[in-house]
Design goal:
The chain is mostly helical. The chain has 2 domains: about 70 residues, no CATH class; about 260 residues, no CATH class. The protein is built from 19 helices and no strands. The radius of gyration is 23 Å and the shape is globular. The protein starts with 13 loop residues before the first helix and ends with a helix.
Amino acid sequence: MKINAILPEKGRDLRLDLFRGIANWAIFLDHIPDNAVNWITTRNWGFSDAADLFVFISGYTASFVYARMMIERGFLVGATRLFKRVWQLYVAHIILFVIYIVAISFLAQRFGDSEIINEFNVAGLVDHATQTLGQGLLLKFKPVNLDVLPLYIVLMGFFPPVLWLMLRQPDLTMAASIVLWLSAWWFGWNFTAYPAGTWYFDPYCWQVMFVFGSWCALGGARKAAALINSKITLYLCVAYLIFALIMTMAGRFSDFGAMFPEWLYSAFNPNDKTFMAPYRFLHFVVVAVMVVRLVPKTWLGLEWRVFDPAIVCGQQSLAVFCVGVFLSFVAHFTLILSSGSLLAQILVSLAGIAIMTTVAYYISWSKRQDKPAAKAAPPKATAGASA
């Protein structure tokens, strides 16, 4: 079957690294309860948040990295390279999972705070340790805040055939993804969790964000360029962003929310994150359109040093994400033990971001050391020596 997708240009798109780094910082901040600093993240100003951005960029970069490989070297090679990445993600999740539950259990025993075990959903380890750990290996048991990585693993695991189809019928594949999402949203399809309930991020629904990222990477964004750059689109996008801000604020402040009709308020509150409500997906699309308009790939500002920390964190995304999830628990527990004042919230937030950034810079430096040093060019022979 003929390749109909438009392969992305070679070379790194710093926008992806920048926004993925920002998404990692935002996820860290959002995972700290009762933290005033997380008011700066996008979840408080509209329907979508950093999780949407993380999944979108993951789908975009997966296509950017593996599409050309699948075309040039065949489906089997491309699929095995994708599965290699899935294995890396799975190992990272298991390591984080073990460290996370050990830290929670240790602190609960050390400070005699048994409630923290229930708060972070690890109570099952006390009574049914073997079964609970086994379900953790199957990605069905997840402590609080460990939901994004299992979702990423599942989406990447099923991506090889999706990418094969995307390369040949990108629009049809995107349409099929939308149909699956809306069907799961309407009928409530979801993966089961242990010991009860379902996944917080429904893979049947969240796959649409991942596939949308792939579709944009493989020519969708270029084909929609005229629509993206239209003045009418700009006005509609701004209007929708204002509407999303108003509805989000209505959900945050009860007195403000009481000013709206119940049917309007309840349509957007609470925000349906599990099943990726249509208004949430639309909000992310609008944000993406505005970013493309305002921050082109060739924008020289991407080279400014002020953006380096976020870009480096985006380039080392997996390690930074794992460190950030663990640090969010440490920050939460630190605030519990301390006064929990605004100053304390600011300090633990800044400290966490500083540690994440330090880890990213160290990994980046370490990888450079693994590369062989460039050999110096031999000195040119002088005229006298050649004579």
